[in-house]
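Shall we go through a protein fold together, starting from nothing but its sequence? Please make up or recall a protein chain and show it to me in full. Go ahead whenever you are ready, and we will take it from there.
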Amino acid sequence: MIRRLYRVATVAVIAVVVMLWAFTLRPQVLGGPATFVAVRGTSMVPTYQHGDLVVVESIGSYEVGQVVAYRVPAGEVGAGHVVIHRIVGGDATHGFAMKGDHNTAPDPWMPKQADMVGIASFRLANAGRLVSLVQQPVIMGGLASAIVVTVLIAQPPRQRRKRPGATRPSGVLTTEMVDP
């Protein structure tokens, strides 16, 4: 009885955690509101350090002073890369002026509303290092190989099918003499 209650409670907790994740931290790629950005470099020191993982959530409009992630506009050097900096001027129509907290000059790009990924919600210190490490091709290949090997090893052995007309030895060794 207690074991069954424990199982039901475990399933309930897992269901609640999955639902919370689905509504709050599900990536935009999966239709959710969040994007995860690994901070690289020192342009946002002291707000964010190299290796931090910042959870970014999409919102309808952006204002001066907010820390946001944006994609470098198409046609620009670095197009498509995600940058996390602070809005220091501009607007959604003509483009926002962006600048890292540690930088002395604004960014060369002027992203518009469509280029915005979202506003920084919270950070996980040093978690971006792990994400960056896992994204390395050699590490991803190793993880994929480990998964394949684990799946192959974890399979139960297959039962051999008996061929029609074949006899199975009884385990007793016999010798038969055949006369020519």
